[in-house]
């Protein structure tokens, strides 16, 4: 067994689907994928999804729905749009809608 993560591109536009596959797994092996990023105000965002490899030992985010995680349907961009703020005590910065004088 020699697991390998295959990402079709390291640079893509926001409206393009993420092409991510994991190969070289055992048949029916469970794998959890996590994504994490920090925004410009230093908040950490994260998401995760657990998948079961197919009979070929492969997980393809285009074709495989997670068994559990921050999203539930088959979606190649699910790890991106389902991110939540890691520290639940962190709030969005205040919106400044004060009138100009």
Automatic annotation (TrEMBL):
GO BP annotation list: acyl-CoA metabolic process; fatty acid metabolic process
Alphabetic keyword roster: Hydrolase
A Gene Ontology molecular function term of the record: fatty acyl-CoA hydrolase activity
Acyl-CoA thioester hydrolase/bile acid-CoA amino acid N-acetyltransferase domain sequence ranges: 15-91
Protein name as catalogued: Palmitoyl-CoA hydrolase
Origin species: Alkaliphilus metalliredigens (strain QYMF)
């Amino acid at each position: 067994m020699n697991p390998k993560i295959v990402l079709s591109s390291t640079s893509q536009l926001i409206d393009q689907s993420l092409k991510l596959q994991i190969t070289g797994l055992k048949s029916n092996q469970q794998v959890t994928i996590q994504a994490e990023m920090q925004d410009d105000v230093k908040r950490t965002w994260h998401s995760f999804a657990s998948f079961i490899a197919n009979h070929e030992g492969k997980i393809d985010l285009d074709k495989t729905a997670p068994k559990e995680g921050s999203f539930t349907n088959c979606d190649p961009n699910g790890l991106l749009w389902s991110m939540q703020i890691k520290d639940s005590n962190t709030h969005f910065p205040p919106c400044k809608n004060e009138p100009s004088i």
